[in-house]
Amino acid sequence: MEAKKVLEDLKRRFPGEPEYHQAVEEVLSTIEEEYNKHPEFEKVNLIERLCIPDRIYQFRVTWMDDNGNIQTNMGYRIQHNNAIGPYKGGIRFHRSVNLGILKFLAFEQTFKNSLTTLPMGGGKGGSDFSPRGKSNAEVMRFCQAFMLELTRHIGPDVDVPAGDIGVGGREVGFMFGMYKKLTREYSGVLTGKGLEFGGSLIRPEATGYGTVYFLRAMLKTKGDSIEGKKVLISGAGNVAQYAAEKVLQLGGTVMTMSDSDGYIYDPDGIDRAKLDYIMELKNVYRGRIREYAEQYPNAKYVEGAKPWGEKADIALPCATQNELNEEQAKTLVANGCIAVAEGANMPSTPGAIRVFQEAKILYSPGKASNAGGVSVSGLEMSQNSERLSWSAEEVDAKLLWIMENIHENCVKYGTEPDGYVNYVKGANVAGFMKVAKAMMAQGIV
Ligand code: NDP
Ligand code: 2IT
């Protein structure tokens, strides 16, 4: 295969989907060499079959707001690839959601899930509905209307959704309730459920913790650790909160957190008590990060900006795609940043990735370092299947093992002749090979 040609063809056939093109380009450019060592792949056009989703569902979601107005949103589910297990991946509710964004996420999820060692294929879904500013009742009615359509496409052995941006425990609970009502079936059809009804301990923590476990493994290759390091975190949601918690546990100092309106910088560091405040602010009151600076006047709030201009040792982008560009990457490097671990999906632009890799700092792509979330989702599926629940210690130990195993695989497949580890290449090649071999074994389907 010629990566450039495949990409050009995809762009022509699927125009107007820049995030999808971006994600595909990153993977193709790094697996091209390995792929071409296997002429049997090319004979069955494996690459196009891997880039183009198995199927896509699109539907209108109609619901009534608190004023009695009828609202419509679009709903989607992308079933990308199920060569190694049932489709698996989150659901995103955000006003920016469109087909191209979900296609990039489903594509990435396929490689990520392959890396986890668990039997999960790749999928993603969502809606352009934004829970921001909506009442609980509105969110419930929307989730129910969304599930009314989604129900017929998913199942515990077919496709198992979970949370993502705008979808947390509350939304998963509402969707699970509706699925159960419609199908009269009690199964592990969604992960990220409440602990009382089949959820796994450590699932809420898993993505953030896993990102920091991965960061720790990267630093260890340099004989370094998180202790004493200053860390910039973007986002203030699920991933950012638990990344911050683990950084604190391991002796680092969290300097920033953010939301889509701006970021806060606390020169004294965001300690445990302050993180508790943020968790309550975000999870209970659904407030804005700006309020932190009112609560802790030593901190500054910077409206409409990202935290990457602040001086620190480590950056953990944990908000959304393309939130860290080339210029910002240059600033981070110039300010002495030694490691970037992505908690979000595709937060660094291609230009930013180039800057990190040329500076030869530690840099891990989301599909490697944020795989902890879907990994514990996989463990939730296992627990549901055996009708048991495991202790927090057991799940956390498995999560740690998985993250360290992914790190090892990245080193195995991504180490360059000069010893620099290209984690992008390592993750893509390792994730790709397993899916490719499974597809080869299963014939042309
Ligand atoms: P949440 O909805 O809990 O939090 C998202 C955070 O990012 C919020 O602070 C939000 O701010 C901010 N944000 C969202 N969209 C934008 C935007 N367009 N520009 C700037 N800031 C934005 O989501 P999660 O923490 O679950 O997800 C964060 C990232 O991690 C996403 O990329 C997601 O795909 C990825 N991820 C999530 C996993 C999970 O298990 N939840 C697993 C693996 C990856 P605001 O409140 O203003 O919207
Ligand atoms: O991007 C992701 O890996 C997630 N949003 C989690 C998916 C899952 O199925 O737990």
What share of residues is helical? 40-55%
* Class from helix and strand fractions: alpha/beta
Find the CATH topology of the largest domain: Rossmann fold
Q: What is the CATH H-level superfamily of the largest domain?
A: Leucine Dehydrogenase, chain A, domain 1
CATH architecture descriptor of the largest domain: 3-Layer(aba) Sandwich
> Biggest sheet, open or closed, and with what strands and sense?
7 strands, mixed
Task: Using the coordinates above, name the CATH class of the largest domain.
Answer: Alpha Beta
Radius of gyration: 21 Å
pLDDT average, as an integer? 98
Can you give a write-up of this model?
The chain is of the alpha/beta class. It folds into 2 domains: 3-185, 3-Layer(aba) Sandwich (Rossmann fold), CATH 3.40.50.10860; 206-369, NAD(P)-binding Rossmann-like Domain (Rossmann fold, 3-Layer(aba) Sandwich). The protein is 48% helix and 16% strand. The strands form 2 sheets. It has a 7-stranded mixed β-sheet with strand order 9-8-7-6-10-11-12, with helices on both faces. The chain has a 5-stranded mixed β-sheet with strand order 1-2-4-3-5, with helices on both faces. The longest helix is centred in the C-terminal third of the chain and has 23 residues, at 392-414. It starts with a helix and ends with a helix. The model has no long low-confidence stretch (mean pLDDT 98). Bound molecules: NADPH dihydro-nicotinamide-adenine-dinucleotide phosphate (NDP) and (2Z)-2-iminopentanedioic acid. (2Z)-2-iminopentanedioic acid binds next to strand 3, helix 5 and helix 15. The site of (2Z)-2-iminopentanedioic acid has 12 residues, from strand 3, helix 5 and helix 15.
